[in-house]
Design brief:
It contains 18 helices and 21 strands. With about 475 residues, the protein is an alpha+beta fold. The strands form seven sheets. A seven-stranded mixed beta sheet has the order 17-18-16-15-19-20-21, sandwiched between helices. A four-stranded mixed beta sheet has the order 3-2-1-6, with helices on both faces. The longest helix is centred in the last third of the chain and has 27 residues.
Length: about 475
């Protein structure tokens, strides 16, 4: 790379681990290296499931120390969860984990005030029990909320600790179910009707906006020389991952794979029809005025939980054994909220197959094959329905994120969708994070330019569809007959 190279620290926090990556960007290339990786282990305390946000912050600081001198820092993470600050800016307890059961039954109470149809027409967000709106409704009776003067989503909270400045980045704010995707601003009507004080939120920031400078104490702890700016990126990790889809043109679908599978399209405007709501598609905001029109699918969480229950066997050997199991013998609905909570995943998958009258998978290989076939089937369903509802045909499916390492899942997705799959990059969220920072320094012109850079510099693998589409139709029919 040339002498004009700049270095960017991308803090990328996933539901099971965090990492600090260093992206070096210049006129002739982009290189990404890992500086530090650390676990993200939720903690179950008497009051429920909580994030160890202090541990995450310590991991970020250690990662910045390992990264060395950089020209900017950006943070992305999972969506919807938040920390509450008091009048002095102190955190009021560990943030609640989105898998905590406190939102059970809350949606129905919200819909009694604002019917689900009206909520979708105003915000475009799919129903998920953990949306920030439902979390706030559940927190109304808590001791913390009345003392809160500020609400910061997870990446904004960590940015505040790094810089002392508060803001609310737009792509993540769009997952709260309090943003109007047409105006790209708060939905004051929805908030007012539900008694939610939008004054809790810091001013909105756009990806690429400055988010402050690292505080002196942070510089001292990390060994960095100031000033080091922090840049607002697409702070929802899916927004950053979609920004890193190495696509040319508009006729593509994407699947961001990891703990979740986020499958959908990049559009210029939201789809707010009642049919779209019934199909549970969401309209989240992306870079440069785009809309991420997608469906949340349970994702590799299903396999992660099984692997945990089995005592972490050799994943490579497990996938090889699964590839030898007959295809589509048993499938489950990978979008079913019944799989949301942790624990007993192999038994729950077996129970779902038994309840639907299918052969019950017993061995780890059989259960793994059931999961991967089911995920591919869910990918197929989501991409087909997205094309129809948005009237937006596609020619290729881009798979990015951790699932790109799973060749069997990528091939099954190509087979199920009947479309070629291009897999890569794996660290899509970190790369999208880096590209926004690079654009703020003039090294990348726009979203299309960043994608061309990725296509030139990142390893990509293409999977062609094979097999008989009728077998996937039959498997889908098994689920819809229930």
């Amino acid at each position: 790379m040339s002498a004009a190279v700049k270095s960017y620290a991308a803090v990328d926090l996933g539901a099971s681990s965090g990492r600090v990556m260093v992206g070096r960007v210049g006129p002739d290339g982009l290189e990404l290296t890992e500086a530090h990786r650390f676990p993200n282990r939720p903690v179950r305390v008497p009051e429920g499931l909580r994030w160890d946000v202090l541990g995450l912050y310590a991991g970020v600081l250690e990662g910045l120390r390992a990264a060395g001198q950089v020209d900017s820092v950006g943070i992305d993470s999972w969506a919807v969860d938040y920390g509450l600050l008091d009048a002095d800016g102190a955190l009021l307890g560990n943030p609640v984990h989105y898998r905590d059961p406190r939102t059970e039954g809350v949606a129905e109470k919200v819909w009694a005030t604002v019917p689900a149809e009206e909520l979708y027409a105003a915000t475009g967000l799919q129903y998920a029990p953990f949306n920030t709106l439902y979390q706030l409704a559940a927190a109304r009776s808590s001791a913390q909320l009345p003392y809160a003067k500020r609400l910061l989503l997870i990446p904004d909270l960590l940015t505040y600790w790094l810089t002392g400045e508060q803001g609310t980045e737009l792509t993540n704010a769009s997952t709260t179910q309090l943003i109007d995707p047409r105006t790209r601003d708060w939905s004051h009507d929805i908030a007012s009707r539900l008694g939610i004080d939008l004054g809790l939120f810091a001013p909105l920031r756009q990806p690429g906006d400055p988010a402050g400078l690292l505080r002196g104490e942070v510089l001292e702890e990390t060994g960095l020389s100031g000033p080091v700016p922090v840049t607002a990126v697409g702070s929802h990790d899916t927004a950053s991952a979609v920004a890193a889809v190495p696509a040319g043109g508009e006729r593509f679908a994407y699947i961001c794979t990891g703990t979740w599978s986020l499958a959908g399209l990049e559009l210029g405007a939201p789809v707010l029809t009642e049919e779209s709501r019934a199909a549970n598609f969401t309209n989240e905001l992306g870079l440069d005025g785009t809309v991420r029109y997608l469906r949340n699918i349970m994702g590799l969480w299903l396999l992660q939980e099984c692997v945990r229950a089995w005592g972490v066997p050799d994943l490579g050997a497990l996938l090889l054994d699964a590839s030898k199991v007959p295809a589509l013998r048993s499938v489950v609905d990978a979008g079913d909220a019944a799989f949301l909570a942790p624990g007993r995943m192999p038994e729950r998958i077996a129970e779902a197959c038994r309840a639907s009258g299918q052969p019950v998978p017993e061995s780890p290989a059989e259960i793994t094959r059931c999961i991967l076939d089911s995920l591919a089937l869910a990918h197929r369903r989501a991409i087909a329905e997205a094309q129809r509802l948005a009237d937006h045909p596609v020619d290729v499916v881009h798979v990015v994120g951790g699932g790109t390492r799973n060749a069997l899942l990528c091939q099954l997705t190509a087979d199920a969708c009947g479309l070629p799959v291009v897999a890569g990059p794996t660290e899509a969220a970190a790369l999208g994070n880096v590209l926004v920072q690079a654009r703020s320094h003039g090294l990348v012109e726009d979203l299309a330019d960043g994608r061309r850079l990725l296509t030139r510099t990142q390893p990509l693998t293409r999977y062609e569809p094979r097999g008989d589409a009728a077998r996937w139709d039959e498997a889908e029919a098994r689920l819809t007959r229930r």
